[in-house]
Amino acid sequence: VMEAVLNFKYSGGAGKMEGYYRELSLGVHVDVEPSVFFTRVSTLPATSTRQCHLLLDIFNPTEHELTVSAKNSKDLVLHPSECQ
Length: 84
Prior knowledge:
mainly beta
């Protein structure tokens, strides 16, 4: 996790007056999460010719349990050094 506050001073735009500036403070919070590896990718036909099913083998190379989420799907829990 990284957090920072960025402070800006700027002048210009509507209402600009010589010798004056605006101040802006922007808080930033970044969560960096471990990555997974896709070890195999393949497809299967679906009931419609305009769609297919995407199959992924996912490997968790970390020492931590990870949860992989996808839209309209159940969460997949990957244990350390596990492939599903």
